[in-house]
Amino acid sequence: MSASTISRQFARAALRTGARNTFATSSRQAFRQSGRRAYSSEPPKQSSSSPLLYIAAAAAAAAGGYYAFTQSSTPKVFVPTKDDYQKVYNEIAGRLEEKDDYDDGSYGPVLVRLAWHASGTYDKETKTGGSNGATMRFAPESDHGANAGLKHARDFLEPVKAKFPWITYSDLWTLAGVCALQEMQGPVIPWRPGRADGDVAACTPDGRLPDASKGASHLRDIFYRMGFNDQEIVALAGAHALGRCHTDRSGFDGPWTFSPTVLTNDYFTLLLSEKWSYRKWDGPQQFQDKGKTLMMLPADIALIQDKAMKPWVQKYAADNDAFFKDFSAVIVKLFELGVPFKEGTEPIAFKPTNA
Ligand code: HEM
Protein backbone atom coordinates (compact mmCIF):
# COMPACT_ATOMS: atom_id res chain seq x y z
CA MET A 1 0.00 0.00 0.00
CA SER A 2 1.35 3.43 -0.85
CA ALA A 3 2.04 5.93 1.91
CA SER A 4 -0.73 8.18 0.62
CA THR A 5 -3.26 5.36 0.75
CA ILE A 6 -2.24 4.55 4.29
CA SER A 7 -2.56 8.13 5.48
CA ARG A 8 -5.91 8.39 3.70
CA GLN A 9 -7.06 5.30 5.56
CA PHE A 10 -5.92 6.63 8.92
CA ALA A 11 -7.41 10.04 8.21
CA ARG A 12 -10.72 8.38 7.44
CA ALA A 13 -10.67 6.49 10.70
CA ALA A 14 -9.59 9.54 12.65
CA LEU A 15 -12.33 11.64 11.09
CA ARG A 16 -14.97 9.13 12.02
CA THR A 17 -13.58 8.66 15.51
CA GLY A 18 -13.42 12.43 16.00
CA ALA A 19 -16.99 12.90 14.90
CA ARG A 20 -18.02 10.09 17.16
CA ASN A 21 -16.33 11.53 20.24
CA THR A 22 -17.90 14.96 19.87
CA PHE A 23 -21.35 13.47 19.85
CA ALA A 24 -20.58 10.72 22.31
CA THR A 25 -19.58 13.12 25.06
CA SER A 26 -22.93 14.85 25.19
CA SER A 27 -24.86 11.61 24.91
CA ARG A 28 -22.77 10.12 27.70
CA GLN A 29 -23.74 13.02 29.94
CA ALA A 30 -27.37 12.58 28.97
CA PHE A 31 -27.05 8.91 29.76
CA ARG A 32 -25.58 9.60 33.18
CA GLN A 33 -28.36 12.04 33.97
CA SER A 34 -31.02 9.59 32.93
CA GLY A 35 -29.22 6.99 35.05
CA ARG A 36 -30.29 8.91 38.17
CA ARG A 37 -33.92 8.32 37.38
CA ALA A 38 -35.50 5.15 38.67
CA TYR A 39 -35.72 2.48 36.00
CA SER A 40 -38.96 0.62 35.65
CA SER A 41 -36.65 -2.31 35.11
CA GLU A 42 -34.74 -2.17 38.37
CA PRO A 43 -33.81 -5.54 39.93
CA PRO A 44 -36.75 -7.12 41.70
CA LYS A 45 -36.72 -7.68 45.43
CA GLN A 46 -36.62 -11.41 45.95
CA SER A 47 -38.92 -11.49 48.93
CA SER A 48 -40.66 -14.79 48.35
CA SER A 49 -39.58 -18.32 47.79
CA SER A 50 -42.98 -19.86 47.17
CA PRO A 51 -42.73 -22.59 44.52
CA LEU A 52 -46.03 -21.40 43.09
CA LEU A 53 -44.59 -17.97 42.52
CA TYR A 54 -41.58 -19.46 40.75
CA ILE A 55 -43.93 -21.37 38.47
CA ALA A 56 -45.75 -18.12 37.76
CA ALA A 57 -42.37 -16.51 37.11
CA ALA A 58 -41.41 -19.22 34.65
CA ALA A 59 -44.73 -18.83 32.87
CA ALA A 60 -44.29 -15.08 32.68
CA ALA A 61 -40.74 -15.47 31.33
CA ALA A 62 -41.96 -17.90 28.70
CA ALA A 63 -44.58 -15.36 27.70
CA GLY A 64 -41.87 -12.75 27.17
CA GLY A 65 -42.48 -10.96 30.44
CA TYR A 66 -40.59 -10.93 33.68
CA TYR A 67 -42.09 -11.84 37.00
CA ALA A 68 -41.46 -9.06 39.47
CA PHE A 69 -41.55 -10.01 43.14
CA THR A 70 -43.20 -7.38 45.24
CA GLN A 71 -43.13 -6.85 48.99
CA SER A 72 -46.72 -7.96 49.28
CA SER A 73 -45.88 -11.06 47.18
CA THR A 74 -48.61 -10.07 44.75
CA PRO A 75 -47.71 -11.57 41.38
CA LYS A 76 -46.95 -8.79 38.93
CA VAL A 77 -45.69 -9.41 35.42
CA PHE A 78 -43.17 -6.94 34.09
CA VAL A 79 -43.50 -6.62 30.34
CA PRO A 80 -40.58 -4.61 28.96
CA THR A 81 -41.35 -1.79 26.54
CA LYS A 82 -39.21 -0.46 23.68
CA ASP A 83 -37.96 2.16 26.13
CA ASP A 84 -36.77 -0.54 28.51
CA TYR A 85 -34.78 -2.20 25.71
CA GLN A 86 -33.36 1.19 24.72
CA LYS A 87 -32.19 1.55 28.34
CA VAL A 88 -30.34 -1.76 28.03
CA TYR A 89 -28.84 -0.50 24.75
CA ASN A 90 -27.75 2.76 26.40
CA GLU A 91 -26.20 0.87 29.30
CA ILE A 92 -24.11 -1.27 26.93
CA ALA A 93 -23.15 1.80 24.87
CA GLY A 94 -22.11 3.60 28.05
CA ARG A 95 -19.93 0.67 29.12
CA LEU A 96 -18.36 0.53 25.65
CA GLU A 97 -17.45 4.18 25.97
CA GLU A 98 -16.07 3.85 29.48
CA LYS A 99 -14.16 0.58 29.17
CA ASP A 100 -11.81 1.75 26.43
CA ASP A 101 -8.67 0.12 27.80
CA TYR A 102 -9.33 -3.20 26.04
CA ASP A 103 -7.66 -4.36 22.81
CA ASP A 104 -7.87 -1.58 20.17
CA GLY A 105 -9.87 0.59 22.56
CA SER A 106 -13.23 -1.14 22.42
CA TYR A 107 -15.08 -4.25 23.48
CA GLY A 108 -17.30 -3.67 20.41
CA PRO A 109 -15.68 -6.23 18.08
CA VAL A 110 -15.69 -9.05 20.63
CA LEU A 111 -19.37 -8.34 21.43
CA VAL A 112 -20.15 -8.69 17.71
CA ARG A 113 -18.26 -11.98 17.63
CA LEU A 114 -20.20 -13.24 20.69
CA ALA A 115 -23.57 -12.49 19.04
CA TRP A 116 -22.42 -14.09 15.79
CA HIS A 117 -21.09 -17.27 17.44
CA ALA A 118 -24.25 -17.59 19.53
CA SER A 119 -26.35 -17.36 16.34
CA GLY A 120 -24.10 -19.14 13.84
CA THR A 121 -24.61 -22.59 15.32
CA TYR A 122 -28.02 -22.79 13.67
CA ASP A 123 -28.91 -25.81 11.55
CA LYS A 124 -31.95 -25.27 9.37
CA GLU A 125 -32.59 -29.03 8.93
CA THR A 126 -32.79 -29.96 12.60
CA LYS A 127 -33.78 -26.44 13.68
CA THR A 128 -31.21 -26.62 16.48
CA GLY A 129 -28.70 -24.02 17.61
CA GLY A 130 -28.98 -20.30 16.98
CA SER A 131 -29.17 -17.36 19.35
CA ASN A 132 -32.23 -18.72 21.17
CA GLY A 133 -30.88 -20.44 24.29
CA ALA A 134 -27.54 -18.69 24.87
CA THR A 135 -26.10 -22.14 25.46
CA MET A 136 -22.54 -20.81 25.23
CA ARG A 137 -22.94 -20.07 28.95
CA PHE A 138 -22.25 -23.75 29.48
CA ALA A 139 -19.37 -26.11 28.85
CA PRO A 140 -18.95 -27.87 26.47
CA GLU A 141 -20.05 -25.05 24.12
CA SER A 142 -18.04 -22.36 25.92
CA ASP A 143 -14.98 -24.62 25.54
CA HIS A 144 -15.35 -25.16 21.80
CA GLY A 145 -12.16 -23.94 20.13
CA ALA A 146 -14.08 -21.45 17.95
CA ASN A 147 -15.39 -19.71 21.08
CA ALA A 148 -11.99 -19.07 22.66
CA GLY A 149 -11.83 -15.55 24.08
CA LEU A 150 -15.58 -14.94 24.13
CA LYS A 151 -15.57 -15.03 27.92
CA HIS A 152 -14.35 -11.41 27.73
CA ALA A 153 -17.59 -10.47 25.97
CA ARG A 154 -19.82 -12.54 28.27
CA ASP A 155 -18.15 -11.08 31.37
CA PHE A 156 -18.45 -7.55 29.97
CA LEU A 157 -22.22 -8.04 29.79
CA GLU A 158 -22.69 -9.54 33.29
CA PRO A 159 -23.20 -6.17 35.05
CA VAL A 160 -25.78 -5.28 32.39
CA LYS A 161 -27.65 -8.51 33.08
CA ALA A 162 -27.47 -7.75 36.82
CA LYS A 163 -28.94 -4.28 36.27
CA PHE A 164 -31.70 -5.53 33.95
CA PRO A 165 -32.43 -9.05 35.23
CA TRP A 166 -35.63 -9.31 33.21
CA ILE A 167 -33.75 -9.64 29.91
CA THR A 168 -32.67 -13.13 28.86
CA TYR A 169 -29.01 -13.77 28.08
CA SER A 170 -30.03 -14.75 24.55
CA ASP A 171 -31.76 -11.40 23.97
CA LEU A 172 -28.95 -9.54 25.75
CA TRP A 173 -26.15 -11.04 23.63
CA THR A 174 -27.83 -10.24 20.30
CA LEU A 175 -28.90 -6.79 21.51
CA ALA A 176 -25.27 -6.17 22.52
CA GLY A 177 -24.13 -7.20 19.02
CA VAL A 178 -26.55 -4.70 17.49
CA CYS A 179 -25.47 -2.00 19.95
CA ALA A 180 -21.77 -2.60 19.25
CA LEU A 181 -22.28 -2.44 15.47
CA GLN A 182 -24.34 0.74 15.65
CA GLU A 183 -22.00 2.41 18.14
CA MET A 184 -19.04 1.57 15.86
CA GLN A 185 -20.69 3.73 13.16
CA GLY A 186 -22.51 0.87 11.48
CA PRO A 187 -26.03 0.94 10.01
CA VAL A 188 -29.19 0.74 12.08
CA ILE A 189 -30.01 -2.93 12.68
CA PRO A 190 -33.64 -3.57 13.64
CA TRP A 191 -33.85 -6.02 16.55
CA ARG A 192 -36.71 -8.07 18.00
CA PRO A 193 -36.95 -9.48 21.55
CA GLY A 194 -38.28 -12.92 22.38
CA ARG A 195 -35.38 -15.33 22.93
CA ALA A 196 -35.56 -17.69 25.90
CA ASP A 197 -32.52 -19.11 27.68
CA GLY A 198 -32.01 -22.86 27.31
CA ASP A 199 -30.15 -25.33 29.47
CA VAL A 200 -26.99 -27.33 28.96
CA ALA A 201 -28.86 -30.06 27.08
CA ALA A 202 -29.41 -27.61 24.19
CA CYS A 203 -25.65 -27.06 23.64
CA THR A 204 -24.74 -27.63 19.99
CA PRO A 205 -22.01 -30.06 18.94
CA ASP A 206 -18.56 -28.68 18.12
CA GLY A 207 -17.79 -27.90 14.49
CA ARG A 208 -20.79 -25.78 13.49
CA LEU A 209 -18.80 -22.54 13.12
CA PRO A 210 -16.44 -21.89 10.19
CA ASP A 211 -12.82 -23.02 10.12
CA ALA A 212 -10.66 -20.04 9.11
CA SER A 213 -8.00 -22.23 7.49
CA LYS A 214 -10.45 -23.52 4.86
CA GLY A 215 -11.79 -22.24 1.55
CA ALA A 216 -15.03 -21.44 -0.27
CA SER A 217 -16.56 -24.92 -0.35
CA HIS A 218 -16.25 -25.15 3.45
CA LEU A 219 -17.80 -21.69 3.82
CA ARG A 220 -20.72 -22.84 1.67
CA ASP A 221 -21.16 -26.02 3.77
CA ILE A 222 -21.30 -23.97 6.97
CA PHE A 223 -23.36 -20.98 5.82
CA TYR A 224 -25.78 -22.86 3.55
CA ARG A 225 -26.56 -25.04 6.61
CA MET A 226 -27.76 -21.86 8.33
CA GLY A 227 -29.78 -20.87 5.25
CA PHE A 228 -27.54 -18.20 3.71
CA ASN A 229 -26.47 -17.75 0.05
CA ASP A 230 -23.19 -16.55 -1.50
CA GLN A 231 -24.13 -12.86 -1.43
CA GLU A 232 -25.03 -13.13 2.24
CA ILE A 233 -21.79 -14.93 3.10
CA VAL A 234 -19.78 -12.09 1.58
CA ALA A 235 -21.86 -9.36 3.24
CA LEU A 236 -21.48 -11.08 6.63
CA ALA A 237 -17.72 -11.40 6.23
CA GLY A 238 -17.58 -7.59 5.99
CA ALA A 239 -17.74 -7.66 9.81
CA HIS A 240 -14.02 -8.39 9.64
CA ALA A 241 -13.54 -4.66 9.14
CA LEU A 242 -13.75 -4.87 12.93
CA GLY A 243 -11.46 -6.32 15.55
CA ARG A 244 -8.48 -8.55 15.24
CA CYS A 245 -7.16 -12.10 15.57
CA HIS A 246 -5.42 -13.09 18.79
CA THR A 247 -2.69 -15.73 19.01
CA ASP A 248 -4.03 -16.94 22.36
CA ARG A 249 -7.54 -17.45 20.93
CA SER A 250 -7.62 -18.57 17.29
CA GLY A 251 -3.84 -18.71 16.87
CA PHE A 252 -4.03 -16.14 14.06
CA ASP A 253 -2.65 -12.66 14.57
CA GLY A 254 -3.52 -9.07 13.67
CA PRO A 255 -6.30 -6.79 12.39
CA TRP A 256 -7.92 -6.80 8.93
CA THR A 257 -8.17 -3.01 8.62
CA PHE A 258 -6.57 0.20 9.89
CA SER A 259 -9.71 1.21 11.79
CA PRO A 260 -10.76 -1.92 13.69
CA THR A 261 -13.27 -0.10 15.89
CA VAL A 262 -15.18 1.58 13.05
CA LEU A 263 -17.43 -0.35 10.67
CA THR A 264 -16.61 0.51 7.04
CA ASN A 265 -16.33 -1.37 3.76
CA ASP A 266 -12.54 -1.23 4.14
CA TYR A 267 -12.35 -5.02 4.50
CA PHE A 268 -13.53 -5.33 0.89
CA THR A 269 -11.44 -2.47 -0.50
CA LEU A 270 -8.33 -3.87 1.17
CA LEU A 271 -9.05 -7.42 0.01
CA LEU A 272 -8.95 -6.11 -3.56
CA SER A 273 -6.33 -3.37 -3.38
CA GLU A 274 -3.62 -5.03 -1.32
CA LYS A 275 -1.11 -7.58 -2.50
CA TRP A 276 -1.65 -10.43 -0.04
CA SER A 277 1.20 -12.88 0.52
CA TYR A 278 1.79 -15.72 2.97
CA ARG A 279 3.21 -14.56 6.28
CA LYS A 280 6.40 -16.34 7.23
CA TRP A 281 5.99 -17.23 10.87
CA ASP A 282 5.50 -20.08 13.34
CA GLY A 283 1.73 -19.67 13.48
CA PRO A 284 -1.07 -21.01 11.27
CA GLN A 285 -1.06 -20.08 7.59
CA GLN A 286 -2.34 -16.53 7.12
CA PHE A 287 -1.82 -13.67 4.69
CA GLN A 288 -0.25 -10.25 5.20
CA ASP A 289 -0.19 -6.98 3.27
CA LYS A 290 3.01 -5.48 1.87
CA GLY A 291 3.39 -3.23 4.93
CA LYS A 292 3.02 -6.27 7.23
CA THR A 293 0.42 -4.44 9.32
CA LEU A 294 -2.77 -6.16 8.25
CA MET A 295 -3.88 -9.76 7.88
CA MET A 296 -6.32 -11.95 6.00
CA LEU A 297 -7.36 -15.49 6.86
CA PRO A 298 -7.40 -18.21 4.20
CA ALA A 299 -11.23 -18.04 4.53
CA ASP A 300 -11.11 -14.29 3.73
CA ILE A 301 -8.91 -14.76 0.67
CA ALA A 302 -11.35 -17.46 -0.49
CA LEU A 303 -13.89 -14.70 -1.17
CA ILE A 304 -11.74 -13.25 -3.96
CA GLN A 305 -10.65 -16.64 -5.27
CA ASP A 306 -14.22 -17.83 -5.77
CA LYS A 307 -15.85 -16.78 -9.05
CA ALA A 308 -19.36 -16.43 -7.59
CA MET A 309 -18.32 -14.57 -4.45
CA LYS A 310 -15.78 -12.12 -5.88
CA PRO A 311 -18.38 -9.93 -7.67
CA TRP A 312 -20.02 -9.27 -4.30
CA VAL A 313 -16.66 -8.25 -2.82
CA GLN A 314 -16.28 -5.84 -5.76
CA LYS A 315 -19.77 -4.46 -5.29
CA TYR A 316 -19.30 -3.79 -1.56
CA ALA A 317 -15.80 -2.35 -2.11
CA ALA A 318 -17.25 0.14 -4.59
CA ASP A 319 -20.35 1.08 -2.62
CA ASN A 320 -20.38 1.47 1.16
CA ASP A 321 -24.13 2.24 1.19
CA ALA A 322 -24.87 -1.03 -0.61
CA PHE A 323 -22.71 -2.85 1.93
CA PHE A 324 -24.46 -1.20 4.90
CA LYS A 325 -27.91 -1.99 3.48
CA ASP A 326 -27.14 -5.65 2.80
CA PHE A 327 -25.12 -6.03 5.98
CA SER A 328 -27.98 -4.76 8.14
CA ALA A 329 -30.44 -7.15 6.45
CA VAL A 330 -28.18 -10.18 6.80
CA ILE A 331 -27.30 -9.44 10.43
CA VAL A 332 -31.01 -9.27 11.27
CA LYS A 333 -31.40 -12.68 9.61
CA LEU A 334 -28.36 -14.13 11.44
CA PHE A 335 -29.43 -12.92 14.88
CA GLU A 336 -32.98 -14.24 14.34
CA LEU A 337 -32.09 -17.76 13.15
CA GLY A 338 -34.29 -20.27 14.92
CA VAL A 339 -35.95 -17.74 17.24
CA PRO A 340 -39.64 -18.48 17.90
CA PHE A 341 -40.92 -14.90 18.05
CA LYS A 342 -44.42 -14.30 19.28
CA GLU A 343 -46.68 -13.20 16.45
CA GLY A 344 -46.73 -9.44 16.03
CA THR A 345 -43.35 -8.82 17.73
CA GLU A 346 -42.31 -5.46 16.32
CA PRO A 347 -38.66 -4.76 15.44
CA ILE A 348 -37.00 -2.02 17.48
CA ALA A 349 -34.67 0.46 15.77
CA PHE A 350 -32.39 1.55 18.61
CA LYS A 351 -31.26 5.14 18.71
CA PRO A 352 -27.44 5.26 18.56
CA THR A 353 -25.98 7.34 21.40
CA ASN A 354 -24.15 9.55 18.89
CA ALA A 355 -27.24 10.26 16.76
C1 HEM B 1 -16.70 -16.32 7.03
C2 HEM B 1 -16.33 -17.15 7.99
C3 HEM B 1 -15.61 -16.64 9.22
C4 HEM B 1 -14.43 -17.11 9.71
C5 HEM B 1 -13.61 -18.25 9.16
C6 HEM B 1 -14.09 -16.28 10.84
C7 HEM B 1 -12.95 -16.43 11.61
C8 HEM B 1 -12.54 -15.55 12.59
C9 HEM B 1 -11.33 -15.68 13.36
C10 HEM B 1 -10.31 -16.79 13.24
C11 HEM B 1 -11.27 -14.60 14.21
C12 HEM B 1 -10.19 -14.29 15.22
C13 HEM B 1 -10.61 -14.67 16.63
C14 HEM B 1 -9.55 -14.28 17.63
O1 HEM B 1 -8.42 -14.77 17.51
O2 HEM B 1 -9.84 -13.47 18.53
C15 HEM B 1 -12.44 -13.82 13.97
C16 HEM B 1 -12.72 -12.63 14.61
C17 HEM B 1 -13.83 -11.89 14.38
N1 HEM B 1 -14.92 -12.25 13.61
FE1 HEM B 1 -14.98 -13.76 12.28
N2 HEM B 1 -15.07 -15.35 11.03
C18 HEM B 1 -16.02 -15.55 10.08
C19 HEM B 1 -17.22 -14.86 9.96
C20 HEM B 1 -17.60 -13.82 10.75
C21 HEM B 1 -18.91 -13.24 10.77
C22 HEM B 1 -20.09 -13.73 9.93
C23 HEM B 1 -18.88 -12.23 11.67
C24 HEM B 1 -19.96 -11.29 12.10
C25 HEM B 1 -21.02 -11.01 11.37
C26 HEM B 1 -17.54 -12.18 12.23
C27 HEM B 1 -17.10 -11.25 13.13
C28 HEM B 1 -15.84 -11.26 13.71
C29 HEM B 1 -15.32 -10.19 14.55
C30 HEM B 1 -16.03 -8.87 14.86
C31 HEM B 1 -14.06 -10.60 14.97
C32 HEM B 1 -13.08 -9.80 15.86
C33 HEM B 1 -13.22 -10.24 17.29
C34 HEM B 1 -12.25 -9.53 18.21
O3 HEM B 1 -11.63 -8.53 17.82
O4 HEM B 1 -12.11 -9.97 19.36
N3 HEM B 1 -16.81 -13.18 11.66
N4 HEM B 1 -13.20 -14.40 12.99
TrEMBL record:
Asked if Transcription is a keyword of the record, the answer is no
A single cellular component GO annotation: mitochondrial matrix
Top-level taxon of the source organism? Eukaryota
Record-level GO BP terms = cellular response to oxidative stress; hydrogen peroxide catabolic process; response to reactive oxygen species
Alphabetical keyword list: Heme, Iron, Metal-binding, Mitochondrion, Oxidoreductase, Peroxidase, Transit peptide
- Coiled-coil features, chain-numbered ranges: none
Domain Plant heme peroxidase family profile: from-to ranges: 95-355
Known catalytic reactions? 2 Fe(II)-[cytochrome c] + H2O2 + 2 H(+) = 2 Fe(III)-[cytochrome c] + 2 H2O
Task: Quote the InterPro entries the UniProt record gives.
Answer: Ccp1-like, Haem_peroxidase, Haem_peroxidase_sf, Peroxidase_I, Peroxidases_AS, Peroxidases_heam-ligand_BS
Q: Please name the GO terms that the record assigns under molecular function.
A: cytochrome-c peroxidase activity; heme binding; metal ion binding
Q: Where in the cell is it found?
A: Mitochondrion intermembrane space; Mitochondrion matrix
Q: Kindly give the Gene3D superfamilies that the UniProt entry links to this protein.
A: 1.10.520.10, Peroxidase, domain 2 (1.10.420.10)
Q: What is its EC number?
A: 1.11.1.-
What does the subunit section of this Swiss-Prot or TrEMBL entry state? Forms a one-to-one complex with cytochrome c.
Q: Which family does it belong to?
A: Belongs to the peroxidase family. Cytochrome c peroxidase subfamily.
Query: What biological function has been recorded for the protein in this entry?
Result: Destroys radicals which are normally produced within the cells and which are toxic to biological systems.
Q: What is this protein called?
A: Peroxidase
